[in-house]
Design brief:
Outer membrane efflux proteins (OEP); 11% strand; 11 helices; two-stranded parallel sheet; elongated; 5-stranded antiparallel beta sheet; alpha+beta; 478 residues
Length: 478
Amino acid sequence: MKWSFFLLSCWLAALLTGCMVGPNYHPPKVDMPVTWSELPEQGIMAQPAEIVTWWKALNDPTLDALIERAVNANLDLRIAEGRIRETRAARGVVAADSWPTIDAAGSYSRYRRSENATPSFSTGGGQFGSLEGDLFQVGFDAGWELDLFGRVRRAVEAANADIGAAEENRRDVLVSLLAEVARNYVDLRGFQRQLIVAHNNIQTQQGTVELTEARFQAGLTSALDVEQAKAQLATTQSQVPTLESGARRAIHRLGVLLGQEPGSLLAELLPEKPIPAASLDVSIGIPSDLLRRRPDVRRAERELAATTARIGVATADLFPRFMLISNTVGLQSASLSDLALASSRFWTAGPTISWPIFDGGRIRATIEVQNAREEQALAQYGQTVLTSLEEVENALTVYTREQVRQRALAAAVAANREAVALANERYTKGLADFLNVLETQRALYVSEDQLVQSERTVVSNLIALYKALGGGWEYRQA
């Protein structure tokens, strides 16, 4: 009883003083740039970013509905949520080592002793009783390890960090999901807009074919002009199947992102709609904001914390382990009817201690393994931070440069339309060669198609910028 009181006092003292071996974790310090190197003079502002629901800035109710459905049904998100539940349960497994264990057991055995192993044994009774018999036994085993050096507490610390990493992983999946849904939706509308441009040019070129055929019948032009017009018409028509397949691929991808069959959204999304318009002004904050907002950076920090705590778990194996309670209490009898009698009782009690003296260097090698893993996690954290900065800088570059390209393409389209009108007028009056008509029509189709692609790319680049900033994970917390 005195021993139990003494060891209980030691255990309480250890909890109060926080005696734990291994390094204490401190979040790493990272030198972040003061501002973005690719920050343009207009359009992008280094103000606090409000990007919790960034997709609503595109003002497309269909996109809003698709994102809501994806968040509710996406299977990758469910996998990430299952991982959170797994890590929480794993923490319970580790934390259970802090509490006493009590096991109940019962057994029955039929035995026969060896006569040769017991020389003084005589058949019919003697020093060792009967040759054969039964043995009934029931009892309880209890144990409680004293966590003097923090092995269990370090393990719980690591498990808590694992939970944090799993939660950040879910947020990272959500950020990627939001961007993926938006990007595929913009791709769909872009392909549909390209189809409209192609069909408009096909209609124009069909009229040119009819005009050249009429002029050929009247003897005003050659068969060469007719065949050239037909060739250009067929070339433009050949673009239609490619654009249609691109639109359907985007719809199929959106169906899977929503946790449905690939073709489930065809009837809903095949009707044409315009490409969502990108915002002119975007607030992105400062580089240091990424440390608190990007889920992958936050996850890398939690993984570093977990590996640091596991160094303490491995180090604790160098020290003795104390069992505050190591008791066995039960009943044992050769007859089932006598099992409940007081004379059938047996018990063992007392604290125990174990200390590894020689293990061939296993414990120290395990500590080195954990130290190496911490070094890797620290390097991984730094790499994740640098990658996040790179992604934002690249997104800023392509977003702002594509806007410049879009304005130039819009001017090219306007000029090409004027050129087509002039070429047709001059050809009809016999003042210009038919080659001018073909060349201006081809240039108009190319510039119109590139303008649509640029409009789609601008919005896609804006989506990539919001993703690089880590926007959207606050929208739905697990």
